[in-house]
Amino acid sequence: MALPAVQITGVRAEIDPVALARKQVRVEVSAGVLRISDRGLAAVLSPAGVLVDRISNGRIFLRKRQSLPVVGLVDVSLEYHPSLGQRGRITFDLVAFRAGVFSVPGFVVSGLIAGAVRGKPGIHITEDNRIELDLGEVLAEAGIRLPAPKALGADGGVLEVAF
Fold it and tell me: Judging by beta carbons within 10 Å of its beta carbon (0-12, 13-18, 19+), is residue 131 exposed, middle or buried?
């Protein structure tokens, strides 16, 4: 059986009855586990032309066809290590970057990538160009309040966030 694109398990939450009476959703989650499969992540990233190779061994492996100066059109591979940040956000550290046959250390291109995602809802860029995702901020627009994540894992084709 294929993994669901996005799955939420073990949810403890409260629903605002006044908001429901106004046909609005206001949910405050106190605990649960959010699981995003490689297929779910691909659905989010595909509009940007980014493909998900796999989620395994604490890493997320992405690919994109990109035109680069001097080199031309190449397959770009990105390897990220997700971790819990200090402000309750998920931090994505760029571990490796490969453009065609050229391997480039992650810190060399992290500023370029940070610039490309800057200003997206729930995305924050740290002083050292790390990408941080605030799931609570993203879901607040849909009327869902989340606590800060307590645990994070990336393996077996799934990014798992426990609250």
Answer: buried
Q: Tokens 């966030």 identify what position?
A: 161
pLDDT in tens, the chain (163 residues): 677 888 989 999 999 999 889 998 899 999 999 999 999 888 888 777 788 999 999 999 988 877 766 667 777 888 999 999 888 899 998 888 887 777 666 666 666 676 666 777 788 888 877 888 898 988 888 899 999 999 999 999 999 999 9
- Cα 64 to Cα 59: distance, rounded to the nearest angstrom: 17
Amino acid found at 127 = E
> What's the start-to-end Cα distance of the chain, in Å?
26
CA proximity to 154, closest of 63, 18, 56, 41:
56
Can you list the alpha helix ranges (DSSP code H) found in 16-105?
17-21, 38-45
Buried b (16+ CB within 10 A) or exposed e, 77-109: bbbbbbebbeebbbbbbbbbbebeeeeeebeeb
